[in-house]
Design goal:
Mean pLDDT: 85
CATH topology: SH3 type barrels
Low-confidence stretches: 74-78
Number of helices: 1
CATH class: Mainly Beta
CATH architecture: Roll
Strand order of the largest sheet: 4-3-2-1-5
Order of helices and strands: HEEEEE
Shape: globular
Strand content: over 45%
Largest sheet: 5 strands, antiparallel
Distance between the termini: 38 Å
Length: 78
């Protein structure tokens, strides 16, 4: 993934899927604090639990709606 693709997820809780050093697919749910470029290391996704290289990220799925703050898989309470 590229920095421009990840920037809309900054500040949101998301499900992040990536490959670790051994090629095993990993998944975590975490708040994304920042997506930044680190000289000599490349682009990184900074979360509350991990620092993940963007070239290893496979998929990012938001857990909450940006407008309502609710989980998009659950309807809003009446």
């Amino acid at each position: 993934m590229q920095l421009a693709e990840v920037k809309p997820f900054v500040g949101r809780r998301c499900i992040i899927t990536w490959r670790d050093r051994s090629g095993k697919e990993c998944e975590t749910t975490s708040l994304i604090y920042d997506a930044t470029f680190v000289p000599l290391y490349g682009s990184y996704l900074i979360t509350e639990t991990d620092e993940i290289q963007l070239d290893r990220v496979l998929h990012i799925q938001p857990v909450e709606d940006p407008v309502t703050g609710q989980n998009p898989s659950r309807p809003l309470a009446a």
